[in-house]
Design brief:
The structure holds two protein chains of two kinds. Chain A contains five helices and five strands, in the order βαβαβαβαβα. Chain A is of the alpha/beta class. Chain A has a five-stranded parallel sheet, sandwiched between helices. Chain A is globular. Chain B is mostly helical. In chain B, 77% of the residues lie in helices and 0% in strands. The chains are: A alpha/beta, B mainly alpha. The interface between A and B is medium-sized, with 20 and 25 residues.
Chain lengths: 126, 131
């Protein structure tokens, strides 16, 4: 599985690189900007995207809308991760067609399984 | 035969005030000393900018900009295991999400800045000890 992680936090990118280092079945790419990720995905689509919601430039929901507007990319599975807890935002993330929402901070040891579980479940709220 | 007392357990920042020992141990299990060192170096390199951005935004009365900067700082603090400071930043972020810079926000920002300065000093000392 080819996983693209988009997060502006350099620490989380480093943690995830370590978390997936031993995962033979997951090939990880990390990017720090949703805008750059959109360009990258158009050229080389991953199997699943894990994206932070609140980032400078373009947030996760805007990224999701851009992805859904592109017929070639609209079916790509997206999982949000966020440190925000307000119910309105979490509801919007779930209703965006994402496969799931992972709350930060998370245990990096759990992340590979969490991603697999969200993928198996299908879209949260179509 | 004489020799220095040695230990095979490398130093960790577990004793740095403000870091959660459980989080430090988890990081150590995930990536050993190199990951711990990298995370601390990344925090010390990037967190001061976020903190300064948040302080400037508060002085400008811009709650949205302050909220985004505090959010970024909070994320880094969580990843390095500074859980108490992470919780303080989380509360400040929630307060700023209301859209207004209040006296309570300014006071909370000062608490976060003071706690971060202490954390930075402790982590800097730990890094120095490794050299």
């Amino acid at each position: 599985m080819r996983l693209l992680v988009v997060d502006d936090d350099p620490l989380i990118r480093r943690v995830l690189a370590a978390a997936f280092e031993e995962q033979d079945q997951i090939q990880l790419t990390v990017m720090d900007s949703a805008r750059d990720a959109l360009t990258h995905i158009g050229e080389d689509p991953p199997d699943v995207i894990l994206i932070d919601q609140l980032m400078p430039g373009m947030d996760g929901l805007t990224f999701m809308a851009a992805l859904r507007a592109d017929p070639k990319l609209s079916d790509l599975p997206v999982i949000f991760c966020t440190g925000r807890t307000d119910p309105e935002l979490l509801n919007a993330l779930r209703k965006s067609g994402a496969r799931g929402v992972i709350s930060k901070p998370f245990d990096p040891f759990d992340l590979p399984d969490l991603i697999r579980q969200h993928l198996e479940r299908g879209p949260v709220d179509g | 035969m004489t020799g220095a007392v040695t230990t095979d357990r490398q130093p960790t920042p577990s004793s740095v005030p403000g870091l959660d020992p459980g989080s430090v141990e988890r990081t150590r299990r995930l990536g050993g000393e190199p990951l711990l060192r990298d995370l601390v170096e990344l925090l010390l390199a990037h967190a001061p900018d976020r903190l300064a951005s948040a302080q400037r935004a508060l002085e400008d009365g811009d709650a949205g900009r302050a909220e985004r900067a505090v959010h970024g700082l909070k994320s880094m603090l969580g990843n390095v295991g500074a859980l108490a400071l992470h919780a303080q930043a989380d509360a400040l972020e929630d307060a700023l999400a209301a859209g207004e810079v209040t006296a309570a926000c300014a006071a909370s920002m000062a608490v976060v800045a003071t706690a971060y300065a202490a954390l930075q000093e402790g982590l800097g000392g730990w890094l120095e000890g490794l050299r």
